[in-house]
């Protein structure tokens, strides 16, 4: 039995992927009959998800109508939370940020202060928008179906906090909670039309998002890609304590907080990752040496992952990624030394060109996929045709 909304979802997916299409294009791409396509196009247009365009190719009679996806039909409010702040954005249904803001706040303050600041930011972005979803990216493992953070290494007080329930008094919209690096991986994959991508988020902490065969790899408990809290390949004596309570984690050698600690010990005044980046850009010898060393630690941490999963690209984002080649040279060095030649032959390791908005773009795309799937789309279509 065909799920309600499945044909509409499939047809809408063609427009989301290909852009504007004629009726004939949709018939050819979908394999559905003309009468079925006419019904689906009419339903999607009535719901405001498609808009007719002027013109179209001639088939001997009247010109075929062309249609395009109306990404501006609704807004998705997204917040990409990091250790020391968040980026909030109102995005359209294609993931394009329409308005955004950045707010400094420590994630260790706990969920209610942070989510309260996010709610305030949301209300300032697009107060009159038709909000179809809320999306929150967090720097920790996520139980995706339950919309909760699970056993996060650094997010004190967030474990299993009901994020979706917290927003329900303010918005009658579904709430999606996703790992921040996973969201960035989705943004990179869609933006560059790649099926196999590793996205490294490098800032105060370190995380990796994995998209392979076009799908997020979350793992059984949502912890896939948490390379920051795996054991570093080369460790020192005495052991380095990590913020998670363990010892000799990759983050304890290569996270922004660890580099900051080393530079402080070297007599430099550093207050956060931004200061580290500025020192590197000025050519400070201590900062350059430590950031390049951090790149080697990260490269060691992902080399086996590269050999096993064979990504097409590794995209770096986050404040620490602004160190550019100083950081990437160390990563490339270790990956190309330790990963197999076949998987590195065409591998691209580069800084993301999406900048600080990579996280919110990915969150919006994940949310758009969820709300435009058959069951959810069917509810939208019913509301569009319901009598007033």
TrEMBL record:
Keywords: Kinase, Transferase
Signal peptide: none
Molecular-function GO terms, alphabetical: kinase activity
InterPro entries: ATPase_NBD, ROK, ROK_cs, WH-like_DNA-bd_sf, WH_DNA-bd_sf
Similarity-based family: Belongs to the ROK (NagC/XylR) family.
Name by which UniProt lists this protein: Sugar kinase
Native organism taxonomy: Bacteria, Bacillati, Actinomycetota, Actinomycetes, Micrococcales
């Amino acid at each position: 039995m065909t799920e309600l909304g499945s044909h509409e979802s499939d047809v809408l997916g063609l427009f989301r992927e290909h852009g504007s299409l004629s009726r004939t294009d949709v018939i050819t791409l979908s394999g559905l009959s003309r009468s079925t396509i006419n019904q689906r196009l009419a339903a999607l247009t009535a719901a405001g998800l498609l808009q007719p365009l002027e013109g179209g190719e001639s088939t001997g009679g009247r010109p075929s109508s062309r249609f395009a996806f109306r990404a501006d039909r609704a807004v998705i409010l997204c917040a990409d939370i990091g250790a020391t702040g968040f980026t909030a954005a109102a995005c359209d249904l294609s993931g394009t940020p329409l308005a955004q803001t950045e707010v400094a706040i420590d994630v260790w303050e706990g969920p209610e202060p942070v989510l309260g600041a996010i709610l305030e930011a949301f209300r300032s972005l697009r107060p009159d928008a038709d909000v179809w979803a809320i999306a929150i990216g967090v720097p920790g493992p996520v139980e995706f179906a339950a919309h909760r953070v699970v056993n996060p290494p650094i997010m004190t007080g967030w474990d299993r906090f009901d994020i979706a329930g917290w927003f329900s008094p303010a918005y009658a919209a579904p709430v999606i909670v996703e790992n921040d690096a996973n969201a960035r991986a989705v943004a990179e994959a869609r933006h560059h039309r790649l099926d196999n991508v590793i996205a490294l988020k490098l800032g105060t902490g370190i995380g990796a998002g994995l998209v392979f065969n076009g799908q997020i790899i979350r793992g059984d408990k949502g912890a896939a890609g948490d390379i920051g809290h795996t054991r570093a390949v080369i460790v020192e004596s005495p052991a380095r304590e990590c913020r998670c309570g363990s010892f000799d984690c990759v983050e304890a050698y290569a996270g922004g907080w660890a580099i900051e600690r080393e530079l402080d010990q070297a007599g430099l005044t550093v207050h956060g990752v931004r200061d580290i980046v500025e020192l590197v850009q000025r050519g400070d010898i201590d900062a350059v040496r430590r950031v390049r060393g951090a790149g080697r630690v990260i490269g060691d941490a992902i080399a086996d992952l590269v050999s096993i999963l064979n990504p097409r690209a590794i995209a770096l984002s986050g404040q620490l990624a602004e160190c550019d080649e100083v950081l990437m040279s160390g990563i490339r060095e270790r990956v190309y030394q330790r990963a197999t030649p076949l998987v590195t032959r065409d591998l691209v390791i580069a800084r993301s060109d999406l900048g600080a908005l990579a996280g919110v773009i990915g969150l919006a795309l994940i949310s758009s996929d969820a709300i435009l799937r058959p069951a959810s789309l069917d509810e939208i279509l019913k509301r569009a045709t319901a009598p007033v």
